[in-house]
Amino acid sequence: MAVSSRWIGAVRGGLGFLTRLPVGYRDGDWEAFRATPAAFPLVGLVAGALAALPLLAAETLAAPTVALGYLCAVYAVTGIHHLDGVADLGDALVVHGDAERRREVLKDTTTGVGALLSVSITVVALALGGLGLAALPVVAAVGVAIGAEVGTKLGMAGMACYGRAASDGMGKQFTDAATVGSFFAPLAVAVFAATVVWPHPGAAALFGAVAGGGLPWNWANRYLGGINGDVFGAANEIGRVAGVHLGVIAWTLL
């Protein structure tokens, strides 16, 4: 496959996997996406820009309305399937037992109190972050929303390149296809995105999202023996929340 065709297929595969955008799907797109971690932050640029559209009304509509619009836009663009990772990790977090027991809980389809609490906190935290964005100037708010989305996708690319899979499954498909050296391309994409939103707090949001996504990764390495698809999903959601809040905090302290 030509390099240009592989990149196009990788981005198309990433949009198909990470968003709800009707991009179509072709044979080889999934394989190209798994082998091209740079597609993660590229998808973040697109998803972040689309999710930020309600923030353009921040100076004309009430802040709670804008925050609700941002929350709805995020899940309309990215879908809610990544929240399943938050739910599964929430149940695994509260269970008593060793790594094997926690991995069993991840596969359990029963929704426990840990899942309900973790998803509720994540959604409420993002809504409150959206409320903070609504209080920012439009340019700053949009920069934070884009930076958070790019950063959380960069964190996922980092897990694919450097992570260790705990078992067979979605996570292993990413870690097997990516290499340590392939992280430089997504990092370059993220650095470019950071320069675009600089000196606005979008750069802080990007870094905060990477750090936030690292929390479930670190926990999974300690208590699950590695990462899996649920950890990728949880990192996507937690990273976004951390990025938005850090971006708002950065603007407040400027």
Automatic annotation (TrEMBL):
Q: Where in the cell is it found?
A: Cell membrane
**Pathway listed:** Cofactor biosynthesis; adenosylcobalamin biosynthesis; adenosylcobalamin from cob(II)yrinate a,c-diamide: step 7/7
Recorded catalytic reaction(s): these are: alpha-ribazole + adenosylcob(III)inamide-GDP = adenosylcob(III)alamin + GMP + H(+); alpha-ribazole 5'-phosphate + adenosylcob(III)inamide-GDP = adenosylcob(III)alamin 5'-phosphate + GMP + H(+)
Residue ranges annotated as transmembrane are 38-58, 111-133, 139-162, 174-197
Q: What is its EC number?
A: 2.7.8.26
Cofactor entry: Mg(2+)
This protein's record includes keyword Transmembrane helix: yes
Q: Which HAMAP family match?
A: CobS
PANTHER family from the UniProt entry: ADENOSYLCOBINAMIDE-GDP RIBAZOLETRANSFERASE
Q: Which family does it belong to?
A: Belongs to the CobS family.
Q: What does this protein do?
A: Joins adenosylcobinamide-GDP and alpha-ribazole to generate adenosylcobalamin (Ado-cobalamin). Also synthesizes adenosylcobalamin 5'-phosphate from adenosylcobinamide-GDP and alpha-ribazole 5'-phosphate.
Name of the protein this chain belongs to = Adenosylcobinamide-GDP ribazoletransferase
Q: Which organism is it from?
A: Natrinema salaciae
